[in-house]
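Colleagues,

For the teaching module next term, I've prepared a clean inverse folding example: a structure given as tokens, and then the sequence designed for it. I'd like students to try predicting residues themselves before seeing the answer, so please don't circulate the second half yet.
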């Protein structure tokens, strides 16, 4: 059973009289009367990160992916709680020092503060992060409009290449290139400076965690809308472009594998100039990659020749 099927069947009814839960269909809880925004994420070794050989980097990854839920809603993260389950090996003195140092660095980088948490002895390593921010309004999911333009920040695919390198599924001749992709996997480039601006133009938004296509379909949800994406417009870094060419790999296989933590959003055509100006003023890459269409048209991805592309894997699936 899929994650959303479980939520709908067993838990949605429990939030019937609680509008702040947003029907459990978004990334966050939003209490408008208190301007309170909360998100919760759990990370398990072997699923969300390969192992704990690089504790400092793993902590950076999970904390950034957690506060990303708030950032994509147009909310600045302020506080966080972190809980962990581990044993004497995973929570050794050395590892705990690395965890503490990593959290300290991330707090300084994103101006956030630790407020509490919990620890549990277990042979299965996991972390749960609760992120808190304050805002008068947020950008909700499932609020796309017909004919909206579809945008994405930054580059897509670097993180997945980093994961493949870590798993030794691909080898590069240059260690410098390997370092670049591994860094993108562990330290996603969050667009914090864009946070407050998003509310001025985005109709709906989500961060890309499970994959571009998978998350775009979540973004639209049960709205009677579809999408058209242009593969050539989906942004990838020059490093990934060179690597795909040298290895004769297909771009389509790298644009919806997840862990990018870029912001995917839609906006009215009239907001195009505003978005371009904000991108230039902040020095942030924002790419227009497609269009929201009527339910009468099928969702599709188009290549540079105008041909439809079939994508076997749209992203990570939370199946139980």
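(Answer key — instructors only)
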């Amino acid at each position: 059973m899929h994650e959303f099927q479980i939520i709908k069947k067993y838990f949605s009814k429990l939030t019937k009289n609680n509008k702040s839960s947003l029907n459990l269909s978004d990334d966050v809880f939003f209490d408008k009367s208190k301007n309170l925004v909360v998100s919760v994420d759990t990370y398990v070794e072997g699923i969300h990160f390969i192992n704990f050989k690089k504790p400092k980097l793993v902590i950076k990854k999970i904390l950034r992916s957690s506060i990303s839920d708030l950032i994509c809603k147009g909310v600045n993260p302020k506080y966080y709680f972190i809980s962990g389950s581990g044993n004497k090996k995973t929570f050794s003195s050395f590892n705990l020092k690395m965890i503490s140092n990593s959290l300290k660095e991330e707090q300084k980088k994103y101006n956030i503060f630790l407020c509490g948490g919990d620890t549990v002895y277990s042979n299965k390593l996991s972390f749960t992060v609760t992120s808190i921010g304050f805002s008068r309004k947020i950008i909700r999911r499932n609020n796309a409009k017909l004919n909206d333009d579809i945008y994405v920040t930054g580059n897509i695919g670097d993180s997945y290449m980093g994961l493949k390198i870590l798993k030794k599924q691909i080898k590069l001749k240059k260690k410098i290139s390997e370092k670049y992709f591994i860094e993108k996997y562990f330290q996603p480039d969050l667009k914090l400076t864009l946070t407050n601006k998003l509310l001025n133009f985005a109709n709906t938004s989500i961060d890309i965690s499970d994959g571009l296509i998978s998350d775009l379909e979540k973004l639209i949800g049960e709205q009677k809308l579809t999408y058209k994406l242009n593969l050539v417009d989906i942004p990838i870094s020059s490093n990934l472009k060179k690597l795909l060419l040298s290895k004769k790999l297909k771009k389509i296989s790298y644009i919806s594998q997840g862990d990018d933590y870029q912001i995917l959003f839609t906006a009215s055509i009239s907001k195009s100039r505003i978005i371009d100006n904000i991108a230039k003023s902040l020095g942030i890459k924002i790419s227009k990659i497609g269009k929201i269409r009527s339910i009468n048209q099928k969702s599709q991805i188009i290549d540079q020749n105008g041909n439809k592309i079939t994508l076997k894997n749209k992203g990570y699936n939370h199946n139980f």
